[in-house]
Design brief:
214 residues, Arc Repressor Mutant, subunit A, Four Helix Bundle (Hemerythrin (Met), subunit A), 3-stranded antiparallel beta sheet
């Protein structure tokens, strides 16, 4: 696939992923290839590449002669994903505290401030978006492409559960405070502290998930 098609595929993928994560496309929504090609003004090649990436993340399923549709949210699968994510997030935090560049450090600081602003508005959708971008910067700052790929996959899958069910049991102030503490640890180059805080951040979601299942 050409570099231009690759860029188009990445753009389509990011848009479709966000629509799925934020439940603009609820489970069982059929993704029409014809309609999406028309909407994004792309050929089938970049669209199919985007759909393939979504399949790898288990966000969509494709059935021959039937079509592609948004996967159901599997609570048990996502619980397992959180358990893996917990350890990998700690590693990413440790590496980010050691390797983060000044430009990414400034983005991280700004995002942690944005999270605090959303406390006044009570917007879970906005906070989910801030949390997603916050973690993406940490993954990039780790300067480990393999780790970044795994965590980007896991985070998107777990964020969909937040949007569908956990928003009712996740207090916005708790998350905003956690992001601010993580940002401060990374700014201070505190590798152990960043690792611990990120692991606790994920454990917080695991505990809320357990509460939800009881």
């Amino acid at each position: 696939m050409s570099s231009n098609n690759t860029k188009l595929a990445d753009q389509v993928f990011a848009t479709l992923r966000d629509r799925i994560v934020y439940l603009e496309y609820p489970p069982e929504t059929i993704l029409s290839e014809k309609d999406l090609c028309a909407e994004f003004k792309v050929s089938r090649t970049p669209l199919r590449e985007a759909i393939h990436k979504l399949q790898e993340m288990n966000l969509v399923r494709a059935i021959p002669r039937y079509g592609t549709y948004v996967s159901q949210i599997d609570i048990n699968e996502i619980r397992c994903a959180f358990e893996v994510k917990k350890k990998l997030e700690a590693l990413a935090g440790s590496l980010a505290a050691r390797r983060i560049t000044p430009d990414k450090l400034e983005k991280l600081r700004k995002l942690s401030e944005d999270a605090g602003e959303y406390l006044q508005n009570g917007g879970h959708r906005e906070l989910i978006d801030v949390d997603l971008r916050f973690h993406e910067i940490i993954y990039q700052a780790s300067q480990n492409p393999v780790l970044q790929e795994f965590l980007t996959n896991l985070h998107s899958r777990c964020a969909r559960l937040w949007g569908s069910a956990l928003s009712r049991v996740i207090p916005i102030p708790e998350i905003a405070n956690q992001l601010r503490e993580i940002s401060q640890a990374i700014q201070q180059g505190d590798e152990a502290g960043a690792a611990r805080l990120l692991e606790e951040h994920v454990q917080y979601f695991i505990d809320r998930l357990k509460d939800r299942l009881l």
